[in-house]
Amino acid sequence: MQYVLVGTAGHIDHGKTALVKALTGIDTDRLEEEKRRGITIDLGFAHLQLTPTLRLGFVDVPGHERFVKNMLAGIGGIDLVLFVIAADESVKPQTREHFDICRLLGIPQGVVALTKADLVDSEIRDLVRLEFEELAAGTFLEGAPIVPVSSVTGEGLPALREALTGAAANVKSRNAAGHLRLPIDRVFSVKGFGTVVTGTLASGSVAREQEVQIYPSMRRLRVRGVQVHASAADHAVAGQRTAVNLSDIEPAELKRGDVLSEPGLFDVTRHFDCRLDLLPSAKPLKNRAPVHFHSGTAEIEAEVRLLGAEKVLQPGAAAYARIVLRDPALLLPGDRFIIRMFSPVVTIGGGVVLDIGEHRYTKSEDAATRLRILEGSDPAARIALLVREAPFGLDMTGLIARTGLTQREIASAATTAELAVITQPAPWHIGRTRFQELQKQLIHTVEEFHRAQPLLAGIARQDLRARVFPSQRGATAAPAFLLDSLLTATAQLVAEGEFIRARTHKVVLKNDEQQARAAIEQAFEQAGLATPAVAEVLARSGVEPARARSLLQMLLRERSLVRISEDLVFHRAALEGLRQLLAAHKATRFTVATFKDWTGITRKYAIPLLEYLDRERVTRREGDERLVL
Q1: pLDDT tier at 68 (50, 70, 90 boundaries)?
Q2: Which CATH code fits 2-168?
Q3: What is the location of CATH 3.40.50.300 in the chain?
Q4: What pLDDT score was predicted for residue 42?
Q5: How far apart are CA 118 and CA 241, in angstroms?
Q6: How confident is the model at residue 29 (pLDDT cuts 50, 70, 90)?
Q7: How much of the chain exceeds pLDDT 90, in percent?
Q8: pLDDT (0 to 100) of residue 492
Q9: How does DSSP assign 568-624, residue by residue?
Q10: Class of domain 181-261
Q11: Global pTM exceeds 0.70
């Protein structure tokens, strides 16, 4: 079964709702005020089984200028437009505005209905046809079928159904394998079921019992049930008109403009870069101008910041810009949007989202060069650019959030980009040049450490990581395995446990250093369990404090000495003797006082030693006693 979503468009009172009812038998005006006033105020929905293999869903939108924002909430997700012009009035202001909106949103095709055809003669029909053809020249509706119809007499309805069938045959299938995104256009409660949201499934699929997330609130919820075109279903796929019953949330906690998507996959944003097209009918747009921003079903106040030398965008021109939103939204590259003036509220332009990463442009950087790459059709070039801009690369989740591409699409594109891909324990992408730069930086950092600390065998892994991968504001942190991958690929360095050294580095002690090293070890060895203060031992070593501390670190690293607390260091032989003493009391329970009697030491040493023995699983504390294991 092919599902195609058709949106109406056109001036108020040109017969959009009556035409949908004539085609489907469904009155889409559901509100009491709509019935009373005889105009469409909010979105209405209907469906039609046009052929055994083709089902049309209709989104009927309001034509009144005051309700264009409601029209925008429904028109963005359609596959084709049913453009309505009353034969007795021809092209009117909202005809033109709706036409501009459809064009700016990139709606690919449509069918034109000349409604109220029974009210005019053939000459008037021909004049209206000519006026519309002049409007549509050079656009997506040039050459579209134009069908005179009457919702009253039924004239032209068979021809209109045939035209819709032909247009539907050219509709490209939505990406059901993509990521779930359902822009919410209605929220209500159903007795016995609870909260229900509806919308047109833009991509992906949604199924019963699936976990989902609401953006931008980031609430995680469970799907209790799914309906497609008002019929219960196990799941819905991209392109279908969908209702989702959600658990554990009240209707008041949701609103039109929220997006239902996959949990933990995307980020919301308040800034994005775009290509912006200004309508020829608009006034010049100044830098930092306030606008109403519309995308999907969302309407948000925003500010336009032009990203070039020009500080005014002229009517009919295009430019790269950054849109700053008052409220966060879920947007992805490729999403189309509309902007409208603050006052008077009229449509002035639209564009396409290129980047949601809030890239910080330097004074010397050409934003246009960067954004042309992101606007291009080559996913490998886009991915390579985003990865290069990340100081330490990006993981798969980060690339999905920045591009909206699937994992398979990213993996395929990465094979042709100049990237180094670390596959374990999870895919991580970094530019090959950047990988080589980090290798050189590692080598340089280790060599500098050896020059500064020649008595130490190597630099601690955590210290090296902090020096090579310093945290940067707004940047993705380097994962722990990136350092391991760099070290594996760098033959000049050797990892020995938690320390890294240059392969050619060897510790060579001078005579006074050898003597000091022996003196430090001997002082702790002779003291036994009544170990001396570290500062006192280093002061008596015979070398200056810096070298003495390095010699102590050497002994600790070799395990000749063992640090059991910040202040206490013991010789290995003393601790081995203590273990042997306790082995003779295996399975014995003892107190601190007993331990002091066994060892002949004071409480100053007894408590830290017992805590060390607990950590080493030689003993186990049980209340005020300990058990020798």
Answers
A1: low
A2: 3.40.50.300
A3: 2-168
A4: 59
A5: 33
A6: low
A7: 61
A8: 93
A9: -EEEHHHHHHHHHHHHTTTT-EE-HHHHHHHH---HHHHHHHHHHHHHTTSEEEETT
A10: mainly beta
A11: yes
Residue 65 pLDDT > 60: no
> Taking 60 as the threshold, does the pLDDT of residue 35 lie above it?
no
Phi and psi angles of residue 586, each rounded to the nearest 5 degrees, phi first: -55, 135
Between the alpha carbon of residue 11 and those of residues 64, 68, 71, 87, the distances in Å are 7, 10, 11, 12
Whole-angstrom Cα distance, residue 560 to residue 192? Answer: 73
Please say whether the beta carbons of 399 and 477 come within 8 A. no
> What class does CATH assign to 511-628?
mainly alpha
Q: Whole-angstrom Cα distance, residue 98 to residue 119?
A: 24
The CATH class for the domain spanning 269-369 reads: mainly beta
- Rounded CA gap, 476 and 547, in Å? 38
Residues 6 or more apart whose Cβ sits within 8 Å of residue 216: 258, 259, 268, 327, 328, 329, 330
Describe the crossing of helices 379-389 and 396-403 by its angle, rounded to 10 degrees.
120
Structure tokens at 491: 């033959």
> How many C-beta atoms surround the C-beta of residue 311 within 10 A?
11
478: pLDDT strictly greater than 90: no
Q: Of 405, 435, 408, give the one whose Cα is nearest residue 419.
A: 435
Owner of token pair 């979503």: 5
Amino acid at 448: E
Kindly indicate the confidence band of residue 135, based on its pLDDT and cuts at 50, 70 and 90: very high
Which SS3 state, helix, strand or coil, does residue 511 take?
Answer: helix
In this structure, the strands spanning 110-115 and 80-86 are parallel
- Angle at Cα 138 formed by Cα 132 and Cα 141, nearest 5°? 50
Please list, in sequence order, all residues whose beta carbon lies within 8 angstroms of the beta carbon of residue 587, skipping any fewer than 6 positions away.
Answer: 627, 628
Residue 91, sorted as left (phi over 0), alpha (psi -120 to 50) or beta, turns out to be beta
**C-alpha triplet 600, 601, 605: angle, nearest 5°:** 155
Average model confidence (pLDDT) across the chain: 89
Instruction: Determine contact, residues 239/217, Cβ cutoff 8 Å.
Output: no
d(CA 310, CA 545): 62
CB-CB contact of 626 with 610 (8 Å):
yes
Does residue 33 surpass a pLDDT of 80? Answer: no
Q: For the segment 236-260, what is each residue's pLDDT rounded down to a tens digit? A: 998 888 999 999 999 999 999 999 9
Domain with CATH 1.10.10.10 in the chain: 511-628
Q: For residue 211, what are its two tokens? A: 């976990």
| Residue 33 near residue 23, CB atoms below 8 Å | no
- Tell me how far apart the alpha carbons of residues 329 and 216 are, in angstroms, rounded to a whole number: 6
Domain with CATH 2.40.30.10 in the chain: 181-261, 269-369
Predicted pLDDT of residue 226: 95
What is the residue-wise DSSP string for 426-491?
S-EEEEHHHHHHHHHHHHHHHHHHHHH-TTSS-EEHHHHHHHHS---TTSPPPPHHHHHHHHHH-T
pLDDT, tens digit, 9 for 90 and up, residues 201-231: 989 999 999 999 999 999 999 999 999 877 8
Q: What share of the chain is helix, strand, coil (3-state, %, to 5)?
A: 35, 30, 35
Confidence of residue 558 (pLDDT cuts 50, 70, 90): confident
Question: Which of the pair, 68 or 311, is modelled with greater confidence?
Answer: 311
At 355, phi and psi to the nearest 5? -155, 135
The SS3 assignment for 416 reads coil
Q: What is the pLDDT of residue 506?
A: 81
